[in-house]
Structure formats: C-alpha cells, structure tokens
Amino acid sequence: MLAPRIIRQLEEIVGKEQVTCDPTDMLCYSYDATQQSFLPDAVVFPADTAQISAIVRLANREQVPLFPRGAGSGFSGGALPTRGGIVLVTTRLDRIVEIDQDNLVARVQPGVVTEQFQQAVEKVGLFYPPDPASLKFSTLGGNAAECAGGPRCVKYGVTKDYILGLEVVTPQGDIIRTGGATMKGVVGYDLTKLMVGSEGTLGIITELIIKLLPLPEAKKTLLILFDSIDGAAQAVSAIIRGKIIPTTLEFMDAATIACVRQATQLDLPEEAQAVLIVEVDGDAALLERQAQRVLDIVAPLGVVGTRVANTPAESEELWKVRRSVSASLRNVNPDKFNEDICVPRSRVPEMIRKVDVIARKYGIPIVNFGHAGDGNIHVNIMVDGRQEGQLDLAKQAIEEVFAGALELGGTMSGEHGVGNTKAPYIPMELDPAAVAYMQTIKRALDPNNILNPGKIFLEAPVQAS
Amino acid sequence: MLAPRIIRQLEEIVGKEQVTCDPTDMLCYSYDATQQSFLPDAVVFPADTAQISAIVRLANREQVPLFPRGAGSGFSGGALPTRGGIVLVTTRLDRIVEIDQDNLVARVQPGVVTEQFQQAVEKVGLFYPPDPASLKFSTLGGNAAECAGGPRCVKYGVTKDYILGLEVVTPQGDIIRTGGATMKGVVGYDLTKLMVGSEGTLGIITELIIKLLPLPEAKKTLLILFDSIDGAAQAVSAIIRGKIIPTTLEFMDAATIACVRQATQLDLPEEAQAVLIVEVDGDAALLERQAQRVLDIVAPLGVVGTRVANTPAESEELWKVRRSVSASLRNVNPDKFNEDICVPRSRVPEMIRKVDVIARKYGIPIVNFGHAGDGNIHVNIMVDGRQEGQLDLAKQAIEEVFAGALELGGTMSGEHGVGNTKAPYIPMELDPAAVAYMQTIKRALDPNNILNPGKIFLEAPVQAS
C-alpha cells in the first residue's frame, strides 16, 4: 500500500482521474501474456514526458518501485509489477508525430500501436518491418523495450535495427535524447541500442525516431508440406545456402500441424509431418523466379505438397494455417510455456531432436513452431497446471530446453526477453563477469533500484501472487 | 616514463621482443589519420586474449593509462596515446577463425584487415558490406571500436549492423562474451552494440562474431554530372523518394571536381559543378531497369553528362574519380581537417550552402564530398598551418560547420567518431544529462580511468605534442 501522500503527489502530477488504486481497475495492469499476475499499489497514466519525469523523481524520493508498461503483451514478464509499487502506463502517449517521406524516418510516441503505425507508413508507400505476433495491440515503446521480433526479421532484422534515436527519462528522472534522425551517428556511447531491449530497467522511452524502408512492390507466399521434420529443417539451411534470404521462413512441426488440423477446417494431409511457410518480397518481376528457385531447392527433401499464393487474398489464406496455431494449442493442454529459444539456423534439426527427447522423458507434449529462418523456434511446453506435479515437470523441461539451445551455440531468448520468467536461468547463458558488467551499469544508473527492479538478471526471482 | 618494473612485467606477459620503449619504434604508434602525434611510454604487442587481460590488470595495478590500437587509421584520434602510458596493438590477433557458410556468420580476431576479410568471404560467395576508405589497412577491431562506415552503408548499414557478438576484455581485465552467433538474442543488456563505437573506452575487443550476407549477383555503376550543386543534392532526395536505395550514392562538389581535374587526367567537363556516383546491386536482371529509373529521376535536375559502367573494369574506371579525391586535395593546401558531419539527406543542399557561406566568411577553401545517400558529407577544411592564424581560422570554421549540421537535425560525426578531436565540441551536440548518463557508465566500469582516458567526452581536451 502506498502512503496517501504519494497518491496525492501522483494526482498532482497527472490529474486525479489518471491515477487509480482500485483493485478491480488495477487487475487489468497486473498481468501480461505469461499469465502471471502481480497487483500493483497504484496505476498512473501520464500524458507526456514531463509528467513521466516527475513521476520518476517522485518514485526516487519515496523509494517506490516503478514499472513502465505499454500494452502488456510481453511474453517474459518484463512489464509486471513484481513487487507492488507503481505501474506507469504509456498508452496515452499515442501520437505519430511525423512521417518524413524524404528521409524515410518517423517520430512516434511510445504508446502508438504497432499495426496502426505500420498501416500509417504503408499508406505513403513506406514499410516498418518488425512484426511481433501481438502487433494488433502491442505498442512501439514496448516493442523497443523488449526488442521485439517477428516472422519478417529473417530478412529485415529486429526492432533494434529500426530505432535511430530515443527520448528517454532516466532512472533518476532526467530527460535525455539519444541518437538522432540521421542514418549514421557515432557521437558518444550508443545509448539508443543499450536502451532497446533493456526492458525498462535503464530508462523509460518517451519518444522514438524510427527508420523506414520503401514498401516492397509485391510478395509471394509458398506453403510447403514435408514428410519429415528433418526434411523441413534441411530445407531452411538449403534455402539460405542457396543465397536466398526470404522475408519469412516459418516452421511448424507435426504436433503443431495435428493441433491445427484438429481445431480448424484447414486441409492438411496426414502425411505432412512439417510445414514451411516461405514468403519472398521485392520487385514483382523477380518473385516468380525466386519462388521457383525455392521450390527447386526443397524438392529433393521430401516435399508432399505445395501451395503457392499469387494474390494477397490467397496469401492470407495460407497464413491462416500459421495464425491458427496459438489458439489451437489450447486443445492440447490448458497451460502453455512458450519459450523462444534461438540457435544458429543450421542447428535447428538437432534442436528439434533434443526437444523431442525432452518431451518423451517428461511425458509432456511439446509443440514447436516459429521463425526457422533465423533459428528462432517457439518451443511450447503444454501442461495442465491443475494436475499435481505438472508445473514442476514443465520447469525441468524448460531448463533442459534452454540447456539444449545453449549447447548448440544458441540463446534462451531470441525475441521475448528475460523479464522475471527467464531471470533464474541467466547464469546458464551469461558468464558471471558479463552479468557483473551489466549489473554495474544498472546500479550506477539506477542507484535506488527504482526502475523495473527484479527484472532481467538483477536479483533473485520473485513469486507470482 | 614507465618504471622499469612495469616494463619487466609487460615483458613477462608478452615476451621481451613484443614490448618496445624505443622512441623510433614508438613513433609508428604515436599518430593516426588526424596527423596528430603523441609519444607513448611503451608499445606492447600481445598475442592473445589472456595476455591482453593480464596487461589490463597490470595497468590497473600500476595506474598506467592504456590505449588499444588497431591499424591507427582513425580520423578522430581515438587510438592516440594522448597522455603517454601503454599502447596495446592488436594486429597480432589476425586470424579469421571461421567462416560458417550455413549460418552466414564469421568469427574473427580484431587484427584482421578489413579488405582481407572481405576478400575471404567473397571467395565463398558471401558479403561483408562495411567499406571504410581505409579498408586496405584498417582492422576489423578498429572498425568496430569506431563503428566505421563507408559508401555502401546507404543500403547496407554500418559496422554495428554486422557485429553479432564479441569477446571483450573489460576495463578491469575480466574476459566477457557479449551477444552470440544467432541472428536474434535478447538476453541481458546489449553490450555488443554498446561496445561498438565506444572507441576502446569500455573494453578491448578480442574477438568478433560477424553477420554476413549473400554476395549480390551483380552491380552497375553510374557517374552523373550536374550543372549545379543544388541539382545533385535534389537528385539524392529524388532517388530515395523514388523508393530506390542504391548501394552507394556518392557526391562531389565543384571544388572537389576542380581538384580532381587538376591532379589527374580524368575527363570532367568544365560545366560539371557536381558529381554523383550511383551504384546499384542485386539481381542482374533488375539492374538495367533500376539504373534507367535513376537516370529518369535525375534527368530534369540539370544533368550535363552521364557515364554508365557495365563491367567491373568500367566500374573501376568511374570509381577512380572518387578515389583520386583525397590525394588531389593536397594541391589545395597542405593541411586538411576532414569532418564527417551527417544530416537528414533532404537537408544536404542546405548544408552545402551553409558550408559555402562559412568558407567565404573565413576565406578558407572547403571541399565537400562523401556519402550523400545517407547525408554523411565529408567537409574538408583546407588550410596551410605554416601561415599564421590559419589553424585558428580552421577551428572557428569547424565549429560553425558543426553548428550548421546540428541546426539541420544532424550530427557532428557520421562515421569517424569523437576521439580527442571532437571531444571539445561534445556539449554542442549532447545535452548535459546525456553526457552525465554516459560518464556514469564509464566511471562505473572503469573506476581507475585506465582504458583510453581523455577520449569521447570524458575530460578536458589535451594538447598534441
């Protein structure tokens, strides 16, 4: 519980109607996509940078933890108020300030919804590639804080690659500008890229300068069915080795296909043990040839079916297969742990075999799909938390999945971040000296440990309420 | 002068023959492309990471400043031993450890020469785009420390965009690994991108994991002559607005053309007041059409001549014009201050006009050329330092050039870095809170201020010897 004087000060900063301590209201800001829930002591909705700065200064004065939050669509608990305190919601800062068509640069506030921004720039023939699955409601500020990815990152890179500059409120309440609107800039340390992916622990993003690309002229989508997981995985390597980097190279294993088949009317033949969805984009004149080259490359690898989309509507139809995955998994088991490990792409077959061994060992269904083109596989460990011992088994399986990814030269998170869920596993991936180096940065910049404490690697994990 | 016990310890670490205190030997490690010279107290040539770590620990114990150095090709003084101490040369760590063709990733030591690395990956059909002018002798470690650019960055991005991970010796001598060999990874703070461009002040890079691309199938080069600077500058914006992002979009002003004309046999007609060199690359089938579109776009903007290269040899001939610039400038005046300001590309015409006003005001020739495609113009202030007052005039002109770039939303350095030369001007670009944030990071990580002290923004500028 916050002292009434703190609530009063919050109300003075943002106005009475932009602070709530009502448990029912606050519940909406207690959870994210991880299905954990932590009730804060207050939720505040600032309107601008000055108010955010004032709130941060207040939190420092009063030694209250502060948890910045966008849309709360994160998959690692990065925005959760794991130790009460104040949740600071940035969704009122939702203006696209400028789309500069001459310089292919936009200036936006952190609360702008990803898809709305994409639509706005596409309207003028421009392109913002990062496309996390949550793009219909995730915010650009949250995308930057977590360094969001998505299917198109194979070709176009992740959120970080599109953030040129930021306005940031530091952990002590100063307002700083990092980077700028130019394509190049090397003056001082690169605080922009340090901030992106730091999950709100080193500052609160209050404005973003975003790099745009010309919108590709056209795209072409292929759905390719394989008779084995190995064939599909080898196809990924073969396509890249063939010097083609598709826009997306999505993968679904047999368990995923079974879920989709069960939950939808989509026609997926029984002999299909793995699916790749390959999309190429660019100059319309080239796409036909590129698509054919992909088909030629994969042909010897056990292809049992191919569908080619030539229009946006047909492409949409193929993507339905991929989009129906998340919902269809609910039929397997009610509780899903979606771990987004990433390995060098040639190691994907080995990784899938490792996961298979782990699933058998613990007798838990594990469903794999995701961004095979960059080795970023979503490993979904499906359990029923109501059954005794299942959550413990899931935990052990997760740890083995992480260990497997690390053995193959990979990482435990390609795009979801660490948040509070992966924090306990950090010592598996980062050596102690590297953690110490990071902790030194955090402690120096946030000496009172106000901003999103207990996240990433900094302290012992906390228990969900 | 270093105490003999320090020299002895250095010799114990690297071997007697890998340490020198001979002034004649040391002279070679006292300067860089800025033409400043600072004599160190010792130069040491470690063979591996363990030796580098031991040297850093020694420097901390003995409180001796340590200056990491690659090939010394920097343009801002980043590698200069501005306060004596030890120069640590990384050129013996010169191995290409691995080129992984399946995953388009290479692992290299910091002393590998940029061009040698490019040739090695091109031999297997791969591509490392960053191409600083010094690539024939610059090292990849130095490129990363300064975040080097080059003409191809318009389309392909800068060094930072290709560094996936690092091994680093921290300012206190720990060995850490940052990032990794995967295309995505969001575990912990992004120390990789923090390190790249930090000019050896936050750690010494001892290994690099580098992202590669498939080598483009073909390229086509156009040299376009304009009757005015404005026409050429407008052409840059028009090409980008036309949704073409060429591989390179290089620019030369009238003064540059005059230098080239005087110093070489190259045929450049008198009416040419500006030159653009435009290169497009990619699928051979597309290039003809892309080149034609570029020519169509620029046609109304005062084109007085066009040359198109269809073969690598013809392309090489066109690039000779650009390559002869640096040498030909010596005819204007003996001393050159090459400032690599960067502005949003649509502001290039205004920037050139500002520079023209400054040149007239101070009566100093200023020659502009560079990477117009990303707004990164090399403003060369040409003086004769032997004449009284000329260096002072140059300093004033430089400050006004920086102010002009900042007024247009630009930066004082697109790719050369800050080093010791731009450090005095930092308060013009970065607000005090941002500088304080950076200084907090440096002080926390390098409490003894051992690693490359006096660089970037940290302390008052020092005088060249």
What's the structural blueprint in terms of helices and strands?
Two copies of one chain form a homodimer.
Chain A lengths: L3 H11 L4 E2 L2 H5 L14 E3 L4 H14 L3 E4 L16 E4 L6 E5 L4 E4 L5 H9 L3 E2 L12 H7 L6 H4 L6 E7 L5 E5 L11 H5 L8 E8 L1 E2 L3 E9 L2 H13 L6 E6 H10 L10 E9 L1 H15 L4 E7 L2 H12 L1 H5 L5 E5 L8 H15 L3 E6 L4 E8 L6 H18 L18 H4 L2 H14 L20
Helix pairs in contact in A: 1-3, 13-14
> Rough shape of chain A?
globular
First-residue to last-residue Cα separation of chain A:
15 Å
Considering DSSP H and I runs of 4 or more, what fraction of the residues of chain A is helical? 25-40%
The percentage of residues in β strands of chain A lies in 15-25%
Task: Please state the CA-atom Rg of chain A, rounded to the nearest Å.
Answer: 23 Å
Please identify the top-level CATH class of the largest domain in chain A: Alpha Beta
The strand line-up of the biggest sheet of chain A is: 15-12-14-13-17-18-16
The CATH architecture of the largest domain in chain A would be 2-Layer Sandwich
User: Most extensive interface: pair and counts?
Assistant: A-B, 91 and 91 residues
Based on DSSP secondary structure assignment, what is the total number of beta strands of chain A? Answer: 18
Parts with pLDDT < 50 across at least 5 consecutive residues of chain A: 460-465
Q: Give the number of domains of chain A.
A: 4
Largest sheet of chain A: 7 strands, antiparallel
InterPro entries (chains A, B): FAD-bd_oxidored_4_C, FAD-bd_PCMH, FAD-bd_PCMH-like_sf, FAD-bd_PCMH_sub1, FAD-bd_PCMH_sub2, FAD-linked_Oxase-like_C, FAD-linked_OxidoTrans_Type4, Oxid_FAD_bind_N
Cofactor (chains A, B): FAD
Family (chains A, B): Belongs to the FAD-binding oxidoreductase/transferase type 4 family.
Keywords (chains A, B): FAD, Flavoprotein, Oxidoreductase
